[in-house]
Amino acid sequence: GQTLRIGSLGNVAITGNVTTGQGGDAFNPMYLDAGNLLTINAGNGVVSAADGAFLRLRAGNGNTASPFQFARIDAGATGGVTVQAPAGIVQTQSGATGGGIRAASVTLNADSAGSAIDGPPSEALVVRGATSLTLTSAGSVDIDRTDGVNPIPALNRLDISRSDSAAAFALTGFSAGQSARRLDFPVIPAL
Predict the structure, then answer these.
(1) Is the CA virtual torsion 58, 62, 66, 71 positive or negative?
(2) How far apart are CA 40 and CA 51, in angstroms?
(3) β 89-91/125-128 pair status
(4) What is the largest CA-CA distance in the chain?
């Protein structure tokens, strides 16, 4: 298998798209790791790997005016994708033209106050094929699991952590017979 590892304490700027073969696993993923800004193809980049690969992308920047932006991230129907970007995670390509994230397991973490997990203007970030979805947010979230081509798989695992309960939150697109409801639990102060 292949393993791709790019890391920097500062910015990482890739001028084109990133395509790899099969490689990595949940414990040893292929990763693009920036201590500050991670830029792929000027924010319109595609990161794709063979089906079953595990991809980890991290942009350490916390300035919400400069979120991590991408067009498409694809680890195949059985792969995994983790995006950790405190400043926010924004899809730039329309879901109708293939933009979004495709993987069986998707983890999105944008934990700076006021950050967003979102899609292009007037659209949600599209997540295709996920049976496991983990979201951590300190701002707004707009995710659509709708897939115009394939049936939407049932979510076997959904984990949501939000530090701003007043921020907008939308998660749409469930398989037949599946739905979600909001449960509010009181915040228990630390001892």
Answers:
(1) positive
(2) 21
(3) unpaired
(4) 50
**CA 29 from centroid of its chain's CA atoms:** 15
User: Rounded to whole angstroms, how far apart are CA atoms 37 and 98?
Assistant: 24
d(CA 88, CA 62): 8
Contact 38, 86 (CB under 8 A): no
119-143 pLDDT, tens per residue? 999 999 999 999 999 999 999 999 9
8 Å CB contact between 130 and 107: no
DSSP string, the chain: ----EEEESS-EEESS-EE--S---TTS-EEEEESS-EEEGGGT-EEE--TT-EEEEEE----TTS-EEESEEE--TT-EEEEE-TT-EEE-S-GGGT-EEE-SEEEEEE-STT-EEE-STT-PEEEES-SEEEEEESSEEEEE---SSSPPPPPSEEEEEES-TTS-EEEE---TT--------PPPPP-
Predicted TM-score (pTM) of this structure? 0.90
Question: How far apart are the C-alpha atoms of 136 and 139, rounded to whole Å?
Answer: 9
pLDDT of residue 138: 95
